[in-house]
Design goal:
The chain is of the alpha/beta class and 412 residues long. 41% of the residues lie in helices and 17% in strands. The protein has 14 helices and 17 strands. The strands form five sheets. A seven-stranded mixed β-sheet has the order 4-10-9-8-7-5-6, sandwiched between helices. Strands 13-14-17-16 form a four-stranded antiparallel β-sheet, with helices on one face. The longest helix is centred in the first third of the chain and has 21 residues. The radius of gyration is 22 Å and the shape is globular. The chain starts with a helix and ends in a 7-residue tail after the last helix. Bound molecules: 4'-deoxy-4'-aminopyridoxal-5'-phosphate. The site of 4'-deoxy-4'-aminopyridoxal-5'-phosphate has 13 residues, from α4. Keywords: Lyase, Pyridoxal phosphate, Transferase. Its EC number is 2.8.1.7. Its cofactor is pyridoxal 5'-phosphate. Catalyzes the removal of elemental sulfur and selenium atoms from L-cysteine, L-cystine, L-selenocysteine, and L-selenocystine to produce L-alanine.
Length: 412
C-alpha cells in the first residue's frame, strides 16, 4: 500500500528516526537541505573504504577505479537531466558555484556595455549577485520581471522586457521562497526568439519533478546535490555542448590544462576545462547514488506524493486564523511559505523547535520577494519525499500552540 511504502521510505533516512527535544523529529526544512538515505551515506563510506584515490592522473588500479566512479556519476547526471552528452555536465560545489561559473566564464566573454540580463523578482540571491558583479564589470544592465500577488511571473512584463539587447535570461525553475513553478519552456522559447540564452536555476526543482533539459531547451541548468538527498559540496552545471566548448576557463589549476609553460598554457577539452583541482570525488559517488535512489522511486511518484501533501498542507494552513500564505501560484511545488498575525516568523520557528518541528524562518536568501510582499520574512515549511500528512498535522498543532502562547487569534 501507499502508506506502507511511505513508512519504508522514512526508514531509508536514519536521521529521521531520532527524537528531538523528546518529540518525534518533524523535518520540514528540505528547501534548505534534504536528509540523506542510508544508501548515499554507505556509498560515500564505501568509496573511502575501498576506492579512494585521485582521479584522471593515476596509472594505478585505485586511481582508475576512482576515475570510473567519478565519470559514472557524470553519466548518471546526464541521464537524470536527459542531457544529450555527458560532456555537457560539469561538476561544481553546488548551484551557487555553477551560476558563478557561467557568469565569470560565459558572462565575461559575451556581455558588453548596454547588454541586458533579465532576472525575475523571485530569484535567490545566488542568481542575482553574480549577475550584478558581472554587470559592474561589463556595463551590462539587469532587468527584473515582476511577480503578481500570487507569486507568479508577470509574463506580459517578461515579453515587453525581451528585445535585441537581451543576452541572457536567468530564472528559477521553482522559487525557494514561494514554491512557484515557472513556465520555463515558454520562457526559453521567447528568449531564443530574440537570440538570448537562458540559465535555469534548478536548485528547488530537481528533487520534486522530472527535469528534461532537452525538452526545456534551456542553455544552462544548475542544481545542488544536497537538496536532492545527496552530499553537501556537490552539484552540477548542464551547458549546451557548443556553448560550453566556446567558453573560456574561469578557475585555473591542475586537471583543466593540456600543456603549461611560463609563456602560455593550453586548456583541456570540456568538461575538464571547468574542473580545476581535485574535485569532491566521494561526493560525486554519493550524489550518483542519491540520483539512483530517486530514480528507483520514480520522479513522477515522488511528485504525486508531494503534491498530495502540499494540497493537504495548503488546506490545513488556510484554516488557521490569522495565517496568510505567501505564494499561492496555480503551479507550485513542495513549499508552504506563510506569515501569522502578531507572531514574528523567528518566534514561530523557535516555538515549533520546542515541539521537534524544523522549519525555516526569514527571507530565505530572496530579499526582493519579501520587499515585494511588504514583509520582513516568512515561516517556510518545505517538503520532501518522506514527509506525510501527519507532519502537516504536527505543524498546524505547533502553530496553534504558538498562537495560544502569544495570546493571539483565537482558534475558529
Ligand atoms: N537557488 C535556489 C532557488 C535555492 O533555493 C538555493 C539554495 N537555498 C540556491 C540557489 C543556492 O544553492 P546552494 O547554496 O546549494 O549553492
Amino acid at each position: 500500500s501507499l502508506a506502507a511504502e511511505r513508512v519504508q521510505q522514512a526508514q531509508d533516512f536514519p536521521i529521521l528516526q531520532q527524537s528531538v527535544r523528546g518529540k518525534r523529529l518533524v523535518y520540514l526544512d528540505n528547501g534548505a537541505t534534504t536528509q540523506k538515505p542510508s544508501v548515499v551515506i554507505e556509498t560515500e563510506r564505501n568509496f573511502y573504504l575501498n576506492d579512494n584515490a585521485n582521479i584522471h592522473r593515476g596509472v594505478h588500479w585505485l586511481s582508475q577505479r576512482a576515475t570510473d566512479i567519478y565519470e559514472a556519476g557524470r553519466e548518471q547526471i546526464r541521464g537524470f537531466l536527459n542531457a544529450a552528452r555527458s560532456e555537457e555536465i560539469v561538476f561544481t560545489r553546488g548551484t551557487t558555484e555553477a551560476i558563478n561559473l557561467v557568469a565569470y566564464s560565459w558572462g565575461r566573454a559575451n556581455l558588453a556595455s548596454g547588454d541586458e540580463i533579465i532576472l525575475s523578482g523571485m530569484e535567490h540571491h545566488s542568481n542575482i549577485v553574480p549577475w550584478q558583479l558581472m554587470a559592474e564589470q561589463t556595463g551590462a544592465v539587469l532587468k527584473v520581471v515582476p511577480i503578481n500577488d500570487r507569486g507568479e511571473l508577470d509574463m506580459d512584463a517578461y515579453r515587453s522586457l525581451l528585445g535585441s539587447k537581451t543576452r541572457l535570461v536567468a530564472i528559477a525553475h521553482v522559487s525557494n521562497a514561494l514554491g512557484t513553478v515557472n513556465p520555463v519552456a515558454d520562457i526559453v522559447a521567447q528568449a531564443h526568439a530574440v537570440g538570448a540564452k537562458v540559465l535555469v536555476d534548478g536548485a528547488q526543482a530537481v528533487a520534486h519533478q522530472a527535469v528534461d533539459v532537452q525538452a526545456l531547451d534551456c542553455d544552462f541548468y544548475v542544481f545542488s546535490g544536497h537538496k536532492l538527498y545527496g552530499p553537501t559540496g556537490t552539484g552540477a552545471l548542464y551547458a549546451r555542448y557548443e556553448l560550453l566548448r566556446a567558453m573560456p576557463p574561469w578557475q585555473g589549476g591542475g586537471d583543466m590544462i593540456r600543456t603549461v609553460s611560463f609563456e602560455r598554457s593550453t586548456y583541456a577539452d570540456v568538461p575538464q576545462r571547468f574542473e580545476a583541482g581535485t574535485p569532491n570525488i566521494a561526493g560525486v559517488a554519493g550524489l550518483a547514488s542519491a540520483i539512483a535512489y530517486v530514480q528507483a522511486l520514480g520522479m513522477g511518484r515522488i511528485a504525486a506524493h508531494e503534491q498530495a501533501v502540499l494540497a493537504y498542507g495548503t488546506q490545513a494552513l488556510l484554516r488557521v486564523p490569522g495565517l496568510r500564505l505567501i505564494g499561492t501560484a496555480a503551479h507550485k511545488a513542495a513549499i508552504l511559505s506563510f506569515v501569522l498575525d502578531g507572531i514574528h516568523p523567528h518566534d514561530l520557528g523557535t516555538i515549533l523547535d520546542t515541539e521537534g518541528i524544523a522549519i525555516r524562518a526569514g527571507h530565505h536568501c530572496a530579499m526582493p520577494v519579501m520587499t515585494r510582499f511588504g514583509i520582513p520574512g516568512t515561516a517556510r515549511a518545505s517538503l520532501a519525499l518522506y514527509n506525510t500528512e501527519s507532519d502537516i498535522d504536527a505543524l498546524v498543532a505547533g502553530i496553534h500552540k504558538a498562537q495560544d502562547m502569544f495570546g493571539g487569534k483565537k482558534r475558529s
